[in-house]
């Protein structure tokens, strides 16, 4: 990364010269003296934000570059609590007297209760700031955009802003509920955990926004190459008197916000006595919001995989029937098995691909072992899986080893599948169980692909085989494995904004299963 240090403070975010502060969402550990290191919760003075990915900031006497996605802006831009934090650190280290601490924390409250007061006040303050932020986007940008039908189509606005208006309506209701539970006189007595519990399913509305956000960035990037859109968005910002941040910066805030809740609740739980009436609700709320974040991550992963599934299908020869994506969105397991189906009793070697709701099986080409031909599929919603003991199998009247049976609930289909080793059979039994669990989980959480998402994925896959040109078959496993470790530009922060803390990237089940198929290796 090569970025030059700002020459002057004239590049501040607010044109009137006032200071903009941001709060760190994650630790930023660096060994580069040109970068600014900090811990989650630190308050950073943002000096320059002209670069979209990396901002220049200051903490005390230290300055440097830091990734913009690691922080959230303090929308109301209150002065940072540096003096309070300095006093608190000194007190914890035993370097300050109890009397001196009382001046900072306020008289008459034990330290833990005062800390709970601070966390409660922070939650309420950031919630009010966030409402103002959403209002500015909805009224300052979307409302003005809708007036210019010559510049924006409604579908285009939906791509750029996602469902942020729905989020705004929900957050206003959520804030009202928080205000009812907020004890203004004695904030540490507030019982707000129940508000998060009551709305835990409502927070799933962020899943759609987070999944759409990459598309929003792409669409916005295209528009910002045209001067009239640059001038229009800047006019919207000035009219609404918003701080000097680009629109894509504002649109990142909901993504950051949903990650912030578990951090705030963890801090609140830390300073809540187990005897406090709010303790159990805060504990449950923390777990609930972690689950919401995990669900958003899972949905994001599933949506990232549908393009790869479409590409996989396009590499299969002689495909028949509906697309895989018409019913499925995740590859759960795959491998080679021997298959016998009634009324025939001839064993056939087939490659099986277990998706949610269905299993597809293919035949390998005799000469080109990397080429697969479609042979059929099974509807897992109407199949039962039966573990078969080694020995004589009554339905097929043959001796079997490492076998399991798939039988339709109507009883008109029976398929006998045999693995080469006992451990392979056990993995398949586990995979079938996982498939049913995932299907039920999707029903419980309401996850499904839209028709637009399915069509777009298949369209992208078909673009590699234009009409009128011969289809070039490439080794399907090589095609998939080449995408196993995508390279990221070095100029971008290596971080996932959807995780609760700065995480290591976890390889998805899709690639893990494909990657370990020994028959695919030359």
UniProtKB/TrEMBL annotation:
PH domain boundaries: 330-437
A single cellular component GO annotation: cytoplasm
Biological processes per GO annotation: intracellular signal transduction
Keywords, ordered alphabetically: Cytoplasm, Guanine-nucleotide releasing factor, SH3 domain
Localization per record: Cytoplasm
Single GO term (MF): guanyl-nucleotide exchange factor activity
The keyword Methyltransferase appears for this protein: no
InterPro entries attached to this UniProt entry: DBL_dom_sf, DH_dom, GDS_CDC24_CS, PH-like_dom_sf, PH_domain, SH3-like_dom_sf, SH3_domain, SOS1_NGEF_PH
Domain called DH: residue spans: 115-299
Pfam families: RhoGEF (PF00621), SH3_1 (PF00018), SOS1_NGEF_PH (PF22697)
Domain of life from the UniProt record: Eukaryota
Domain SH3: 17-76
Protein name: Rho guanine nucleotide exchange factor 4
Organism field: Sander lucioperca (Pike-perch)
Lineage: Eukaryota, Metazoa, Chordata, Craniata, Vertebrata
């Amino acid at each position: 990364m090569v970025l030059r240090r700002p020459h002057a403070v004239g590049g501040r975010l607010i044109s009137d010269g006032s200071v903009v502060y941001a709060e760190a969402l994650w630790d930023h550990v660096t060994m580069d003296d040109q970068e600014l290191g900090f811990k989650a919760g630190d308050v950073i003075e943002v000096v320059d934000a002209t670069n979209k990915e990396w901002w220049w900031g200051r903490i005390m006497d230290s300055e440097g570059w830091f990734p913009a996605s690691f922080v959230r802006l303090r929308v109301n831009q209150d002065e940072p609590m540096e003096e309070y934090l300095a006093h608190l650190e000194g007190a914890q280290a035993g370097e300050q007297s109890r009397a001196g601490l009382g001046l900072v924390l306020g008289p008459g409250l034990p330290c833990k209760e005062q800390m709970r007061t601070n966390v409660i006040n922070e939650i309420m303050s950031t919630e009010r700031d966030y409402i103002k932020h959403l209002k500015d986007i909805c009224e300052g940008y979307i409302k003005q955009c809708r007036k210019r039908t010559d510049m924006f189509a409604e579908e285009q606005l939906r791509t750029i802003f996602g469902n942020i208006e729905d989020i705004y309506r929900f957050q206003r209701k959520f804030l009202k509920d928080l205000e009812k539970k907020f004890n203004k006189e004695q904030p540490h007595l507030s019982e707000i955990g129940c508000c998060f519990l009551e709305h835990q399913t409502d927070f799933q509305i962020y899943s759609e926004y987070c999944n759409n956000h990459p598309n929003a960035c792409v669409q916005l990037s295209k528009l910002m190459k045209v001067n009239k859109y640059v001038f229009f968005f800047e006019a919207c910002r000035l009219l609404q008197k918003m701080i000097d941040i680009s629109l894509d910066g504002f649109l990142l805030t909901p993504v950051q916000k949903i990650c912030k809740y578990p951090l705030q609740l963890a801090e609140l739980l830390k300073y809540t006595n187990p005897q406090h009436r709010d303790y159990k609700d805060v504990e449950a709320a923390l777990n609930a919001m972690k689950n919401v974040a995990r669900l958003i991550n899972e949905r994001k992963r599933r949506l990232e995989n549908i393009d790869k599934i479409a590409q996989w299908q396009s590499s299969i020869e002689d495909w028949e029937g509906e697309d895989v994506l018409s019913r499925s969105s995740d590859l759960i397991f795959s491998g080679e098995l021997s298959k016998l189906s009634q009324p025939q009793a001839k064993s056939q070697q087939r490659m099986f691909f277990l998706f949610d709701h269905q299993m597809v099986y293919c035949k390998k080409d005799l000469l080109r072992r990397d080429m697969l031909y479609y042979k059929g599929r099974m509807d897992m919603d109407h199949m039962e899986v039966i573990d078969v003991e080694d020995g004589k199998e009554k339905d097929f009247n043959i001796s079997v080893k490492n076998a399991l049976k798939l039988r339709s609930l109507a009883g008109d289909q029976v398929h006998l599948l045999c693995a080469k080793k006992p451990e392979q059979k056990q993995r398949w039994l586990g995979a079938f169980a996982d498939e049913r669990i995932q299907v039920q989980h999707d029903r419980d959480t309401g996850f499904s692909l839209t028709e637009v998402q399915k069509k777009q994925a298949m369209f992208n896959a078909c673009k590699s085989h234009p009409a009128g040109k011969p289809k070039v078959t490439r080794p399907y496993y090589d095609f998939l494995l080449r995408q196993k470790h995508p390279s990221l530009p070095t100029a971008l922060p290596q971080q996932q904004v959807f995780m609760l803390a700065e995480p290591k990237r976890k390889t998805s089940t899709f690639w893990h299963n494909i990657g370990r198929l020994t028959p695919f290796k030359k």
